Amino acid sequence: MFYDHIMDWYYDHRTFRLIWAATWETLYMVGVAGLIGFMIGIPMGVILHITKKGGLTENRLVNLVLGAIVNIGRSVPFLVLMVAIIPFTTLLIGKFIGTTAAIVPLTVGAIPFIARLVESALVEVPTGLIEAAQSMGARPMQIITKVLLPEALPSIVNTITITLVTLVSYSAMAGTVGGGGLGDVAMRYGYQRYQPDIMFITVVLLVIVVQIIQMVGDRVAARVDHR
């Protein structure tokens, strides 16, 4: 009886450490991929918006090329993307399996997604504000930083929220092919070893992470919305 209690405690303690580590791995993947994705995707979305026909700095060639890259990136399923860029991931990280390695395809998958959402957010800015700024002699960069981005900030915050939620889902898929995190635990223990309790816990934790991201994102968006 005493031995059974010791083994139960050991199993519960080991499971807790496993789930805890996997949760932080998921947050690490989502956080780093999201940060890099926003640093590249937001400027890319701005360029898409200002180079389109009738934009601040209309450039059909740049818009066409960049738009094609974004469309290609969005059209490739994430699992296919992970496999397709294995050489690139290996070149950057030195391996293609593991939590850090999974950040590469997560980031590559997030960038075109962010770019299109940011472009859509900027479209919502009233053209009257842009014309008023132009009539006062504002340069394109001033219009971008003083008019476009501040006015579209609530929508951009929503874009960040949607992207982070999507990255949580992507990270779970990455875990099923050796990317680590909660997806990896769910696959190795919940599915392969058929431990439904661990599968249930991982699903609950993923839902909780998504709910927290959505709640924080909604509150920030409401706070920065002065319309």
Automatic annotation (TrEMBL):
Domain ABC transmembrane type-1 residues, every copy: 23-217
Gene3D superfamilies, per the entry: MetI-like
InterPro entries: AA_ABC_Transporter_Permease, MetI-like, MetI-like_sf
Record GO cellular component, one term: plasma membrane
Domain of life (superkingdom): Bacteria
Signal peptide: none
Spans through the membrane: 27-49, 61-86, 92-115, 156-178, 198-217
Localisation: Cell membrane
GO biological process: D-methionine transmembrane transport
Keyword Transmembrane among UniProt keywords: yes
UniProt keywords, alphabetically: Cell membrane, Membrane, Transmembrane, Transmembrane helix, Transport
Membrane topology (UniProt): Multi-pass membrane protein
Stored SUPFAM superfamilies: MetI-like
Protein family membership: Belongs to the binding-protein-dependent transport system permease family. CysTW subfamily.
Protein name from the UniProt record: Methionine ABC transporter permease MetI
